[in-house]
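tokens incoming
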């Protein structure tokens, strides 16, 4: 319209938020009609669907629209998207284009909206959700995020935000928080007697805080560990910078000089120094249980006393450590200090602290805001902290809290730097273990090079063991659990080989204090009895997905019931709860009224133990495959004395959930203490003998044989007769092929391949080097591409499935100079029958040459997937579903090859749609810069599974959703 300015709003998002994309367009149209014209603007929503097709890189055609937009609205949920050739997804590349414009001073802005993914997915996130979460962390430093739970909530958020954006465009003004509050200070002089009292106070503080805190187990009784000797640099993520608040956050609030070099992650000392330089006097430290918040405060106490310059404090500064749960309502700070010190038998005149506070020679360390009794009281405590900030303006204040305790009205309304403690990475794990073992060995032995070297070697040995196991590594990223792992290794000489044994040892370490303490303390129950009470609690807690802690009111009836069962009825449930919280690290307080286990793995382990004790396998079968129960299932089959693999599997193979969950079954087979072929062979034999086939009989037989294929050959030989019978009598072709594959692996003779009448070629061959199962694709004409263009190929053989990790391991063993794939040691991607991933085109070609095979051309691949008639998908023209393919991040990782027999192609090939993209030998276009890939992958939307769809990557590209399969000439 004449006289108005056009504002373009670009909508950026992957395919899983189509409803939100439409809502965004509706909101823009509504505002254009209702509000924009009156403010002198015309609004227009644009997106990738408005860009006509053309030659060149697809995303390259979309980016010019982004470069013309005034605002980018990004929406993400579970999917991050597909690689564009430059970025991990189109949404990310669009963000980068707009962000570069913003940083160059263009009058543009970015609003990002994240729909909260289901809690179950967050417990076991796949690569797509992981990329979304990593992207969220990266942009969080710029204050760009908004969250919503449902599309209608997104509609209201976007409508409100765009209305404010239009108003800001009109006025050109932005509100800024006010300045500092001036206070008067009062000073006094210290006498010699006062200096002696302060010296007594600081010496007491050093004695109290100089050792590593190991509450709950007997470490400190055996040997105190010097905190400063084992303390490793603490990394934290900058969440909110100066001049941000609970009500007013925005992009402009982030000071660029406060950002870290690694997406907002900085060393705590660096962040502290930057805060001091910027005159930010309040730092909020957030973290999960066991993340090291209190340990960090203890370190600050020691540095404040011994080397105040290291934290930018004045000489003679006094560290004042206050557990916030001990501060009374309405109490002034100095009175609280005096009273709490008196509890520790320290009588220091309050005037000494008053002088230091007003003069700026004190550092206030306020621990555990989350431990204040209720949300209302936490809000009151935050207002109390704000009052201390105004009164003692020159003193640095550090407040710690768990994430759940720093929300809503508990968020401070004063200028502050907010830091979230990061989990340990490999460098921190290695450094901590080295320092821990050197400290232990030199303390137990002597301060000599021999003991230092011995400690360093022990630490390195344990670090290598931790890095080999994804589960142990995940446990070790929590500082508290890493200390327990170190204790287990030091006390037992080595970590157990199986993680179920490690968890058992961790529980024993956490509870061992009970038995040791009984020599001098009259405890009302033993460690064994404590475990018997806690196992049913873990089981009850795990009944609700994502429940990690519970209130005292919920727990007391459960504890009372277990104490009665143990004939401990004279012991009050509340007394047990307090004792196990205060004297054991196995059940910790998440606040004054909430309790839980220190790590989800411990809860899962105790739940598995309780299920085994109850023999309640049916309940676990009912949730088989659900992510919240996945680890419990794997831990259950790993238990021994007695083992429960056979009874659990017998119930499972008789249930519907067995079919379609082979990825979990494969993991259970790898974790089992005593894996057995019997449950599968018995179920297969019964299926073959049924006179009338059931609806899913073919799938059942296939999945039973698929599971049997992963068992050791010695086990399989016990079931060879039923496998032979399956080769002849199985209901489905895929099950018969699976049986034949097992027999070939066992060296069973008498197998003859049938001959294709049209070509005279064998329908099936076996790769001479890697035992690839090669199926014939007859030559001839076929319909190719979206337009049904006629093409022709000669007869060739194509592997029935992509190359597996098991096959690639043979290649690595024969070629020692070849580097392992990036995720070779990651359990999510390294199971034997999963397709190998993170291999480049060059590495795929090298494998094929070693195996005496080759990569297929893209037209050979398409002929194998579509047949002569040009079907849309390998199985036909029906839309993809969960019975035919692994797609849309429904599993979150590649599945074992052949897990979807219903998705078989016209010549019997499997996994041609979904699971992993597959390299071909063809160039994508005449520029010869990209190689063509086919098939789609586990994170991709259904549209990417079309057999005609072509995709591209540079030949040296590696990804967790890219693999390959081999071909061979006749």
């Amino acid at each position: 319209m004449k006289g108005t300015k056009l504002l373009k709003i670009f909508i950026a998002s992957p395919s899983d938020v189509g409803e939100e994309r439409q809502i965004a367009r509706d909101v823009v149209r509504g505002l254009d009609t209702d509000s924009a014209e009156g403010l002198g603007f015309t609004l227009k929503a644009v997106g990738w669907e408005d860009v006509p097709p053309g030659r060149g890189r697809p995303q390259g055609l979309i980016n010019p629209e982004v470069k013309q937009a005034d605002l980018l609205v990004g929406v993400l949920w579970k999917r991050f998207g597909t690689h564009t050739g430059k970025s991990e997804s189109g949404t990310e590349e669009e963000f980068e284009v707009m962000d570069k414009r913003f940083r160059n001073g263009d009058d543009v802005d970015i609003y990002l909206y994240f729909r909260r993914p289901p809690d179950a997915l967050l417990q076991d996130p796949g690569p797509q959700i992981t990329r979304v979460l990593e992207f969220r962390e990266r942009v969080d430093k710029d204050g760009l995020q908004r969250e919503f739970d449902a599309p209608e909530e997104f509609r209201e958020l976007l409508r409100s935000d765009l209305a404010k954006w239009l108003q800001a465009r009109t006025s050109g003004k932005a509100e800024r928080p006010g300045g500092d509050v001036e206070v008067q200070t009062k000073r006094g002089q210290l006498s010699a007697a006062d200096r002696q009292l302060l010296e007594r106070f600081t010496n007491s503080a050093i004695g109290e805080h100089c050792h590593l805190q190991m509450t709950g187990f007997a470490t400190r009784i055996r040997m105190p560990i010097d905190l400063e000797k084992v303390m490793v640099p603490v990394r934290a993520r900058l969440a909110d910078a100066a001049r941000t608040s609970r009500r007013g956050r925005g992009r402009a609030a982030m000071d660029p000089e406060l950002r870290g070099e690694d997406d907002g992650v900085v060393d705590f000392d660096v962040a502290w120094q930057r805060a001091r330089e910027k005159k930010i006097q309040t730092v909020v430290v957030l973290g999960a249980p066991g993340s090291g918040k209190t340990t960090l405060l203890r370190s600050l106490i020691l540095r404040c006393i011994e080397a105040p310059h290291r934290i930018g404090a004045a000489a003679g500064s006094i560290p004042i450590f206050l557990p916030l749960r001990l501060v009374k309502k309405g109490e002034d700070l100095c009175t609280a200090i005096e009273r709490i010190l008196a509890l520790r038998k320290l009588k220091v005149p309050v005037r000494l602290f008053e002088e230091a506070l007003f003069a700026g020679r004190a550092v206030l360390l306020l621990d555990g805001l989350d431990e204040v009794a209720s949300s209302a009281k936490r809000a009151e405590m935050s207002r109390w902290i704000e009052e201390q900030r105004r009164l003692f303006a020159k003193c640095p204040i550090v407040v710690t809290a768990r994430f759940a305790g720093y929300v809503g009205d508990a968020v401070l309304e004063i200028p502050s730097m907010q830091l979230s403690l990061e989990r340990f990475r490999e460098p921190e794990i290695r450094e901590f273990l080295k320092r821990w073992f050197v400290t232990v060995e030199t303390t137990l032995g002597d301060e000599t090079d021999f003991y230092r070297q011995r400690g360093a070697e022990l630490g390195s040995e344990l670090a290598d063991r931790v890095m080999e196991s994804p589960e142990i590594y995940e446990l070790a990223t929590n500082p508290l659990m890493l200390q327990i792992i170190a204790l287990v290794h030091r006390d037992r000489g080595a970590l157990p080989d199986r993680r179920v044994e490690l968890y058992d040892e961790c529980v024993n370490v956490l509870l061992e204090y009970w038995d040791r303490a009984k020599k001098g303390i009259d405890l009302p129950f033993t460690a064994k009895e404590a475990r018997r009470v806690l196992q049913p609690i873990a089981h009850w807690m795990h009944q609700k997905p994502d429940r990690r802690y519970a209130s005292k009111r919920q727990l007391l009836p459960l504890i009372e019931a277990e104490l009665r069962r143990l004939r401990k009825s004279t012991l009050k449930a509340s007394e047990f709860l307090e004792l196990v919280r205060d004297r054991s690290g196995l059940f910790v307080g998440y606040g004054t009224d909430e309790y839980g286990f220190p790590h989800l793995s411990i809860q899962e382990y105790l739940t598995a133990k309780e299920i085994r004790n109850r023999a309640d396998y049916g309940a676990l079968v009912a949730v088989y495959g659900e992510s919240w129960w996945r680890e419990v299932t794997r831990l259950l089959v790993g238990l021994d004395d007695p083992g429960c693999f056979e009874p659990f599997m017998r119930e499972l193979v008789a249930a519907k959930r067995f079919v379609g969950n082979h990825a979990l079954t494969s993991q259970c087979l790898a974790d089992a203490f005593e894996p057995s072929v019997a449950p599968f062979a018995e179920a297969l034999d019964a299926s073959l003998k049924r006179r009338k086939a059931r609806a899913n009989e073919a799938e059942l037989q296939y999945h039973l044989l698929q599971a049997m294929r992963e068992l050791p050959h010695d086990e399989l030989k016990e079931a060879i007769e039923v496998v032979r019978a399956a080769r002849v009598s199985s209901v489905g072709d895929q099950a018969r092929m699976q049986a034949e594959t097992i027999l070939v692996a066992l060296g069973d003779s008498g197998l003859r391949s049938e001959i294709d009448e049209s070509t005279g070629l064998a329908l099936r061959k076996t790769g001479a080097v890697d035992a690839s199962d090669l199926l014939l694709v007859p030559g001839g004409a076929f319909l190719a591409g979206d337009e049904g263009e006629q093409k022709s190929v000669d007869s060739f053989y194509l592997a029935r499935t992509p190359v597996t990790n098991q096959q690639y391991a043979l290649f690595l063993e024969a070629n020692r100079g070849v580097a392992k794939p990036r995720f070779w040691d990651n359990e999510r991607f390294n199971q034997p029958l999963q397709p190998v991933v993170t291999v480049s085109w060059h590495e795929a070609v090298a494998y094929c040459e070693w195996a005496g095979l080759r990569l297929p051309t893209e037209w050979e691949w398409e002929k194998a997937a579509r047949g002569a008639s040009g079907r849309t998908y390998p199985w036909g023209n029906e839309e993809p579903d969960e019975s035919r393919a692994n797609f849309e991040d429904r599993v979150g990782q590649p599945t074992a090859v052949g897990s979807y027999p219903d998705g078989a192609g016209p010549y019997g090939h499997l996994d041609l749609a979904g699971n992993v993209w597959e390299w071909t030998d063809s160039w994508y276009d005449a520029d010869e810069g990209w190689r063509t890939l086919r098939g789609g992958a586990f994170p991709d939307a259904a549209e990417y599974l079309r057999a005609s769809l072509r995709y591209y990557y540079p030949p040296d590209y590696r990804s967790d959703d890219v693999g390959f399969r081999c071909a061979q000439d006749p």
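note: Residues 172-188, 214-222, 240-262, 513-521 have pLDDT under 50 and may be disordered.
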